[in-house]
């Protein structure tokens, strides 16, 4: 067998069980992120009835975890590049578990805001960790599929939340207790993440390319994957790009504008609509009960969103990561535009749900998946978690604005006017996508070289 470096082995490895283990380990974190972020939408319906918060306070309750995620993604992303991925594996999940448990015991709105903020720090930290963990263990051919599979665990989190809410409410549990159970149950998958992540080795790519520890990287990969790794006499080239060096180069600002900008615009639309979805249903069908509005939310997630996630990971490497993103922005934006422009569409539940469902499908089969994937591919190994963390952090700030502003905008402009703004944001997100290279079919090292300007198109696409 010819001698290979650790990086060559990872890039050329056929799909194996160790890839599936990495998907599960990274994906459980993302399942927890999704459950914790989106369950607040169902809980808010009950919290509103118990504590009668103002529209501004409803926006804060829905968005506090997102503004915390903004900070957590920055902090943990940078720490993972400075101290190594394994130093952060599991730590962010512990913070999520603590925040979820404390949220369940909140005595009032103020304490709930504080505890959701704590949990949000862990959620933000998990974004770069889940993405980078998988992208650095993935092979070149299937990287998009594998990272998308991790992200598709969000679909399970999306539908688990409404199922938990419906189960608790239909069981006759006191609504004041039901919302506490909804929030507190997020600690269970977070605990599983802690156990899985602590058993993961340090990223072999990080060890070989940043620390120059080729033998340690090969041993860790062999123990995790059962793969024999031949180390060539000449070590892999290593270089640690400092944050100052990264921010002094225009090409990284271009990448950050493309990844963070498009992701923030998407999250403004997506989280504003998703977390407020039970409230959206209420505005379209004002006589619907709490159970009915949550049930409609579950139907939208299950019928429109889940197939979008599945089709995304099945086809992303064939279609192209960047191409799928702008295609999704285009059709998702068009759906929002139709809702915003067509008179009375927001007063007829079935046509509204049909068009809204199309927007959800192309959100998942598009930028909701690809923003996560692209941010884990286009930066060099030494600043990959930093770049992804920065992008995810800015995105969660966009999500915070969307969730906080959504009920206020609906009150001021109506649902039509609010979704017209979302339509404009989707078009701008499409344009920012064009700043990024096409990573499909290319190794991480080819996409994100440290010492030369990356090629911005594989085939002119």
From TrEMBL:
Membrane topology annotation: Multi-pass membrane protein
InterPro entries, per the entry: MFS_dom, MFS_sugar_transport-like, MFS_trans_sf, Sugar_transporter_CS
Residues of the signal peptide: none
Record keywords, A-Z: Membrane, Transmembrane, Transmembrane helix, Transport
Gene3D superfamilies in the record: MFS general substrate transporter like domains
Highest rank taxon of the organism: Bacteria
TM stretches of this protein: 34-51, 57-76, 88-105, 146-171, 177-196, 252-271, 291-312, 324-343, 349-366, 387-409, 415-436
SUPFAM superfamilies named in the record: MFS general substrate transporter
Localization, UniProt: Cell membrane
Listed name of the protein: MFS transporter
Species assigned in the record: Sulfobacillus thermotolerans
């Amino acid at each position: 067998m010819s001698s290979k470096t650790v990086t060559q082995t990872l890039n050329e490895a056929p799909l194996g069980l160790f890839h599936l283990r990495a998907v599960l380990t990274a994906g459980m974190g993302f399942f927890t992120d999704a459950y914790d972020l989106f369950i607040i939408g169902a809980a808010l319906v009950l919290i509103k009835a118990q504590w009668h918060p103002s529209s501004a306070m409803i926006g804060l309750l829905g968005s506090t975890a997102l503004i915390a995620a903004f900070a957590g993604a920055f902090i943990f992303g940078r720490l993972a590049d400075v101290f190594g991925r394994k130093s952060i594996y599991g730590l962010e999940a512990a913070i999520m578990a603590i925040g979820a448990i404390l949220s369940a015991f909140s005595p009032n709105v103020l304490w709930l805001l504080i505890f959701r903020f704590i949990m949000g720090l862990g959620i933000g930290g998990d974004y770069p960790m889940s993405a980078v963990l998988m992208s650095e263990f993935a092979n070149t051919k299937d990287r998009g599929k594998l990272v998308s599979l991790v992200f598709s665990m969000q679909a399970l989190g999306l539908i688990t939340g409404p199922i938990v809410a419906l189960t608790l409410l239909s069981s006759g549990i006191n609504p004041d207790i039901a919302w506490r159970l909804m929030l507190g149950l997020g600690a269970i998958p977070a605990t599983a993440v802690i156990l899985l992540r602590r058993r993961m080795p340090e990223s072999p790519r990080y060890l070989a390319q940043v620390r120059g520890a080729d033998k340690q990287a090969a041993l860790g990969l062999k123990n995790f994957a059962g793969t024999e790794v031949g180390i060539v006499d000449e070590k892999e080239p290593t270089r640690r790009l400092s944050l100052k060096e990264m921010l002094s180069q225009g090409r990284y600002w271009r990448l950050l504008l493309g990844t963070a900008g498009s992701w923030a615009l998407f999250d403004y639309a997506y989280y504003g609509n998703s977390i407020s979805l039970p409230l959206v249903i209420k505005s379209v069908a004002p006589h619907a009960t709490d159970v009915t509005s949550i049930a409609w939310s579950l139907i939208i997630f299950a019928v429109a969103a889940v197939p979008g996630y599945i089709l995304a990971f099945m086809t992303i490497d064939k279609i192209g990561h960047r191409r799928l993103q702008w295609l999704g922005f285009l059709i998702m934006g068009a759906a929002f535009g139709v809702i915003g422009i067509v008179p009375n569409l927001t007063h007829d539940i079935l046509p509204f749900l049909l068009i809204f469902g199309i927007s959800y499908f192309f959100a998942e089969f598009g930028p909701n998946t690809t923003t996560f994937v692209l941010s884990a591919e286009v930066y060099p190994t030494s600043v990959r978690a930093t770049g992804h963390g920065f992008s995810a952090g800015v995105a969660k700030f966009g999500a915070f604005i969307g969730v906080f502003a959504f009920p206020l905008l609906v009150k001021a402009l109506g649902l039509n006017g609010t979704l017209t703004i979302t339509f404009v944001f989707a078009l701008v997100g499409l344009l920012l996508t064009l700043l990024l290279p096409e990573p499909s079919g290319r190794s991480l090292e080819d996409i994100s070289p440290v010492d030369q300007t990356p090629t911005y198109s594989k085939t002119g696409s």
